[in-house]
Amino acid sequence: MIVEKKKLYTAEIVLICIPLLWGGTFVFIKNALQDFSPNLFVAIRFLLALIIILPFTYKALFNQTKIGYRDATILGLLFFAAYSTQTIGLEYTSVTKSAFITSLFVVLVPIFQTLIKKRAPGLGSVVAVIFVFIGIIFLTSKGVSLLTIFTEIGSDFNFGDFMTLLCAIFYSLQMIHLDMISDKYDVKFLALMQIGITALMSLFVAFSFDLTGIEKIQINFTDNVIFAFFYTAIFASVLTTFMQTKYQRFVTPTRAGIYFSMEPIYAALIAFILMNEIIPSFGLIGCLLIFIGVIISEVWRK
Question: Where are the domains of the chain?
C-alpha cells in the first residue's frame, strides 16, 4: 500500500511538472513559424527527438505483437495529429486563442472518458474541471471582460482556430488511448512509436503540401528557430513524452487533464519573467481558480 501511494504521489508531481516544460512552447513556436513551415518544423523537432532517444529505445521494437504495433501506431497517429494541427493553427491564430482552445481538452477528456471507457469521472473531478475551465477563461480574458476570449473567437473564428480545436480533440483522444494501453506495453516502445510516427508523418505531410501547392516549404534557420528546435525537441518532446507515457497510467485521464491545465499558469509566469508581460488581475484570479481546481481534485479523491 505504501509503495502504491508513493508511486501515485510521484506520478502526480511529474504530471504537474510536465506543463511547466510545455509552458514556453506557444511563444517559441509562434516566433519560429515566421521563418519555418509548420509541418516541417514539427518534423525536424521530432526527428531531433528521435535521434536523441533511438540509441536507448530501439531494442523495445523487437518482440512486439501485431496488436502491440497496432495500438502503438494509433497512439502515434493521434500524437502526430495533435501536434500537427496545433502548430498549423498557431500560424494563423494568436497565442492567446491557441492556448485557450487547446485547453478545451480539460473539458473534452472526461466526455471522451465517459463515452469510450464507459467510466464517468468522479464528482470531485467534475467540480475540479469546472474550476479549471473558469480559471482558464479568466486567465485568457486579457483583464477586460470574461467575455473577451469568447467574443474574439466568435467574431473571428478562423482556420487556425479550427485546426487548434482539432488539436484539443486529438490530444483528448490520445490521453484516453494512452490510458487504455499504457499498462500493456513498455514505456520505451510507446514513447519511441509516438515520436517516430510524428516525425515521419510530419515530414511526409510537409513535402506533400509543398508538392501539391497547399503550403510551400519555408526554411530560414534564425536564432529563434534554432532555440525553438533545441527547447521543443529536448524538453517539450523527449522529456514530456517519456514522462506522460510512464506516469499517466497511475491516474485517470480526467485527473491528468486537470494537472495539465497548469500549462497556461506556467506560460503566463514564463512570459512575465522572460518578456516582462504583466499578468492582469483577471489573470491572477484565473491562476488561483486553476490551482483550486487541482487542489479539489486531490483533496476530494483522498
Answer: 2-301
